Amino acid sequence: MSAENERPLRTPVQAVRHFLGSNIIWVGVILLIVWTFLPLVWSITASFKTPNEVYTFGILPEDPSADSYRDVFNSRNFWRYMYNSMFLAVISTFVSVTVSAFAAYAFARFAFRFRHTLLLLILLPRLIPRVSLIVPLYQLLLSLGLMNTRTALIVTYTASAIPLATWILVGFFAALPKDLEEAAAVDGASRFQQLWKIVLPLSVPGLVTVGVLAFRDSWNEFPFVLAFTSGADQRTLPYALFLLSDTVGLQNWPLVNAFALVTIIPILVLYLRFEKHIVSGLTSGAVK
Amino acid sequence: MTQLPEMTREGRQATGDAPSDSTRARGGRSALGAFNDVTRPYRYILPASSLVFAVFAYPIARGFSTSLHIDTPRTPDRPFVGADNYRDLLQDSDFWNSFQNSVTFVLGTIAVGMVLAMIFALVLHHAPFSPLKRGLRALSLAPWLISGVAAATMFRFLFNPQVGLIGVLDFLPFIDGGTWLGDPFRAVVVIIIANTWYITPFSTLILLAGMQTIDPDLYEAASIDGASGVQLFRHITLPSLAPHIALTLVYFSFASWNTFDLVLTMTAGGPGRATEVMALYMYRLAFTNLNFSTAAGVMMVLLVLNIFFSIFYLKSFKIND
To answer: B144 in the Ramachandran plot: left (φ > 0), alpha (ψ -120 to 50) or beta?
Structure first.
């Protein structure tokens, strides 16, 4: 280490500055990790403690126990809420991806009147905050007799996923070369067959991206469940967690934390599985 | 939400070179076939557009109409009152309280979030070792996956002086073991921190995407001319990122003006009305006071604010574009 000998002597302030200068990236990495994971880690360790132990401020549980998780799984209606969340997310994801794929294909491949106006109208809702629609949607659902139904949630979740999904898929479809479809058309493939057998299989990364986005939105949705439903038959995990953490009196903190973490697991698994697609899909969808 | 102009440009291009359907039609097509070809795009778009119409367009029109009538359980005939509801709103101190809370909340989130998002994007862009870089990028999105209710639950726990991390840190200045969510000023600080934690990852991603598009030659050329790291950031990174910074601002402000889950779960607007942001105020008007017409007025105000700020940010950054 010849450079070592050539180093000039430094005052402590200079030494600190030098250290920061050459290691600033690591300071940033640690800041990023601490900021992002501290709340999660604090919650995870607490979920393995006993209800009284959380008051002792130990960082790690003395005698880790999964009791809280057992209590979550055995809690009243837990599996029903889980089923509702899953059912709503799967159905609305499936429907929104399907109808968005058709719309996106039309925008990417056909020339027709009002094309730009229609595309604009489908994309415009991205400027509209969903929660603000709670009042007129409530009135609408009431007059249609759709209060307290799963249909109400499926329709609203599906529709809210369409603008972003259509936008991302138009980009995907437009980037595909047209040669394959034209060749298939010569062989007599209908437009529907071209979409179904050629375009969709080539767009799996895009479909996965919009699918996970739609799933995430409906899995985490809260205001509509709160306002449009009143029975355990329609209510979802976020609502159950809200009720649990809204109780007055002494909180069972390990249970609350375990419940919160359990609601995250399905979407986390899905995300980690498709992370690569999602990050690039999101980036192109948000930035273009 | 903001890429519409670009989209239109791209769309026009696609239209230009799209072979028209009639050139594909082979001999002997029936009139029905031609009709099918003409209506096909509309048929493909119909399901998506009807859903969007039913859940967005119609409710907005209906909400606007509601805001011009009196619509409460005691007025079944819904008399038309014009702008009266808006006048009432402007004279309601609770409305101005919620407006002020939202402004504080939005500005606080933008101030803290913008700095963090920029730091994190730089970190993710410059992190050494590609596995570390990839791993950090994937994991840094974790808060974005979580529901507002779950994030709020965690932050309530974190800032509870009896059980939370804040209780461990009480040797630090300003942290005295006192209540956080029960104190009108501190509660605002906590919801801003929680909101920033919740929505910064997506902004980081937008800025990171922008950084990846900057031509590395620019940095090299400037470095040869003796520019320091700070100068590189100030004169190359920042100006090149202008459109992405604008998008980040749009996203931050959009997500914060309309925050509902997070604040409802953490404070329910309390203590008193110290954290009652506009979406919460609207919800209380409609579902506690059953005053749908005034709530619809708040909805219209929220919509206008959102659109105004989005356009404002994008316009003010277009100059450098």
So the answer is: alpha
